[in-house]
Write a structure and sequence with these properties.
Oligomer: heterodimer
Radius of gyration of chain B: 19 Å
Number of helices of chain A: 16
Shape of chain B: globular
Largest sheet of chain B: 2 strands, antiparallel
Helix content of chain B: over 70%
Order of helices and strands of chain B: EEHHHHEEHHHHHHH
Number of strands of chain B: 4
Strand order of the largest sheet of chain B: 1-2
Number of strands of chain A: 16
Largest sheet of chain A: 6 strands, mixed
């Protein structure tokens, strides 16, 4: 596709025919910068991203001033209902008919992979924020994908590595029986085995197991492993933790949730989750800047933001800064700009976007506080240690992404 | 240690017991469904949503009104029954004359409405509810640690199931109910108000779902979708037991709970599907269900 979008092609042709250059027209398609956001607003992941994510992006646009170099910033969002086809058709429509310049893809890895492909076809930046699969910047990397926040590799490495280092050598997995759970388990297993640990049991559970976790948990316990690793999420994670406490499994085994969001800790309460390790890139109470932003978010939503919602905000802000610096909303120019700047904001002190599209920054190993340690509402985590960005994510030696080989 | 098919006996005992615990939820849920189907000829697909409502009412009672578990054990099912009665009087009633499909669609719509309503207020992660102090803690049985609360769930739901069975099969009131479904015109001729009886029966059926919701509140996270996960299995249980058989619903509920649990030992991936495999087999061999009367 040329740098001049279809809608403006006749106008540009006219301008050229008249013999006068029209640089402003070519730099900003349709005279506006349009941002689209599709995520799960009503389903399983809606607490982690959802309406809160919609609000976070609104805040980013407002904080930026509503315009870039005098061009209006427009925002559209939609619920993808966790349906890949719906997410793809909505986004395609936005690209083709509504002149969308940049797409943020929220929850759901399947959706994320489909949108990455679509955005690459359209040569427009795609920011994957809540989708966890590391394939986005590995086997299926594209020049237009930016993977913000966490991925399956970083959370598994952070948590598993720390636990083995502390002496947790034998592991039993309780794993969600679909792609997401399997990749979490694979990544964690690699770390455990590399550090001399052993996986004694790996039990798969179907989605929506609810009260029947007890059966599977007792089997995990029968393996006599020290660590009960929960490679699952959402409601299943919540119910697994609840049952583990109820049946005393948590007394003989140490629990580790490979991927946890603050909403799950909030829903379960500290009594049930205390002592659990987790890896995440952001926590509302981590710095002055994050606290200030979170308080503003709280005013609007009456809930503290999740790391995903903060990443939604940061990713859009980062994009807008790049558009401003590049002086255009052209996809290739903006991507070039994005990959040559450092990110300093309320989300990270120092981040950058690698050739494979991974936004690299320090992740943090955290531990859930006990009820006694928690001094105020939403005071849930203590930081155990920072995991430097170049250790946390897929390394150059491991990558299968042709853009970074 | 003694083993059966490679599984140590204590583990097996533990799973049998757990199966009974889960089965008692199935039994109470499917009992409500069977009563409603038997007497109203309505497939109550909103049963899961009403179970969820029972659990949420329990949580609300504690957090908004300061009412403890024991108070809500009575009040929440009554509140769910009230919702049911209002639904039956104002909406469901008009669908009896029509094809089954209308009632079914209405029920699906009602479920989505109730689930969406709760989700907009409480989000998908829902709320956590703790077991009452008197029932918290666990007993070490040697082969497993049994939470006291789960023991109470089994006892309470079995008692409720037996009571319901007794009332319907062995009392005069139950006889009216059964007669009313066989031949409403004739029963009305004896001076019995059949429409009111139908309303109350529906109210009672959904109250059982509400009660199961109260019992489940401390066991699972109280979330808007908790019923949607359960209802599909419960329907399979009712079909296996026989759609119109009260005893069938109870027995099938307990047995399938145990079967599911044992499947979890030998092949965890199948634990969610085993019930449906059994359903398919039963439908092929005995379409009316194990305890159902052939029409």
């Amino acid at each position: 596709m040329s740098r001049i979008p279809h809608a403006l092609a006749p106008a540009a042709a006219l301008a050229i025919a008249a013999g006068c250059a029209a640089p402003a027209l070519a730099q900003y398609s349709d005279d506006a910068v349009r941002i689209g956001f599709v995520t799960d607003i009503s389903g399983t992941y809606s607490d982690n991203d959802g309406q809160g994510g919609v609000e976070a992006i609104k805040m980013a646009i407002e904080d930026f001033g509503g315009t870039v170099n005098g061009k209006k910033i427009e925002y559209m969002y939609a619920d993808h209902l966790n349906k890949v086809d719906l997410a793809a058709s909505t986004s395609r429509e936005w690209f083709d008919r509504r002149g969308m310049d940049m797409l943020v893809g929220g929850a759901n890895s399947g959706v994320g992979l489909a949108l990455a492909k679509l955005s690459a076809d359209k040569k427009k930046p795609f920011f994957a924020v809540t989708a966890a699969t590391a394939r986005l910047t590995n086997e299926e990397c594209t020049p237009y994908t930016v993977h913000y926040a966490y991925d399956t590799v970083s959370v598994a490495r952070g948590t598993a590595g720390a636990i083995v280092d502390e002496g947790g050598k034998t592991w039993a997995f309780l794993t969600a029986d679909y792609a997401f759970g399997a990749s979490l388990q694979d990544e964690a297993t690699k770390v455990v085995e590399a550090k001399g640990g052993k996986v004694l049991a790996a039990i798969k559970h179907p989605m929506g197991t609810s009260q029947n976790f007890s059966t599977l948990l007792l089997q995990a316990q029968a393996s006599r492993a020290q660590i009960l690793a929960l490679a699952t999420n959402g409601e299943d994670l919540i119910n697994a933790v609840k049952s583990a406490n109820e049946f005393g499994v948590s007394r003989t085994m140490k629990m580790a949730a490979v991927l946890t969001h603050i909403t799950e800790v909030h829903a379960l309460g500290l009594e049930q989750t205390q002592g659990m390790y987790l890896t995440d890139g952001w926590y509302w109470d981590q710095s002055e800047a994050s606290r200030e932003w979170s308080k503003r978010f709280f005013e609007k939503r009456k809930k503290m933001p999740t790391s995903m919602q903060a990443a939604d905000y940061s990713s859009v802000l980062t994009y807008l800064k790049a558009v401003q610096a590049a002086g255009t909303d052209d996809g290739d120019a903006v991507m070039k700009q994005l990959k040559s700047t450092r990110i300093h904001d309320m989300y990270t002190d120092d981040g950058f976007i690698r050739a494979d599209g991974r936004m690299v920054y320090d992740m943090f190993l955290r531990q859930v506080k006990s009820p006694q340690e928690s001094k105020y509402p939403w005071d849930y985590y203590k930081t155990v240690r920072a995991i430097p960005g170049d250790e946390a994510f897929t390394t150059r030696a491991e990558t299968k992404c042709s853009l970074w080989k | 240690m003694m083993e059966i098919f490679g599984v140590p006996l204590p583990v097996l005992w533990a799973q049998l017991l757990l199966g009974l615990v889960n089965g008692s939820f199935y039994a109470m849920m499917s009992l409500g469904l069977a009563i409603i189907f038997g007497l109203l000829n309505v497939i109550n697909l909103s049963h899961g949503a009403l179970y969820m409502l029972g659990a949420f009412f329990t949580w609300m009672g504690l957090n908004y009104l300061g009412l403890n578990y024991w108070a809500m054990l009575v009040l929440a099912p009554l509140a769910v029954a009230l919702v049911g009665v209002v639904v039956e009087r104002t909406m469901l009633r008009h669908l009896y004359r029509l094809d089954h499909m209308y009632g079914l669609l209405f029920m699906i719509g009602l479920s989505h409405f109730l689930e969406g309503l709760m989700r907009s207020f409480y989000g998908v992660s829902g709320k956590s509810y703790s077991a009452p102090a008197a029932l918290s803690g666990a007993t070490d049985l040697g082969f497993m640690i049994m939470p006291n609360y789960r023991g109470w769930v089994v006892a309470a739901s079995l008692a409720m199931c037996l009571l319901t069975w007794f009332v319907i099969e062995r009392t005069r009131l139950g006889a009216y109910l059964r007669a009313g479904t066989e031949n409403p015109k004739l029963v009305e001729a004896f001076g019995i108000n059949v429409p009111r009886m139908v309303t109350l029966t529906y109210g009672f059926g959904v109250a059982l779902a509400g009660l199961a919701g109260v019992l489940a509140a401390p066991v699972v996270q109280v979330t808007p979708m908790m019923g949607a996960n359960l209802i599909v299995v419960v329907f399979a249980v009712v079909v296996i037991g026989g759609l119109n058989s009260i005893l069938g619903a109870i027995v099938a509920g307990l047995v399938l709970g145990v079967v599911e649990s044992l499947a979890g030992v030998y092949y965890p991936e199948a634990s969610a599907t085993v019930v449906f495999v059994i359903m398919a087999i039963v439908l092929m061999l005995r379409p009316a269900g194990l305890f159902g009367r052939e029409a």
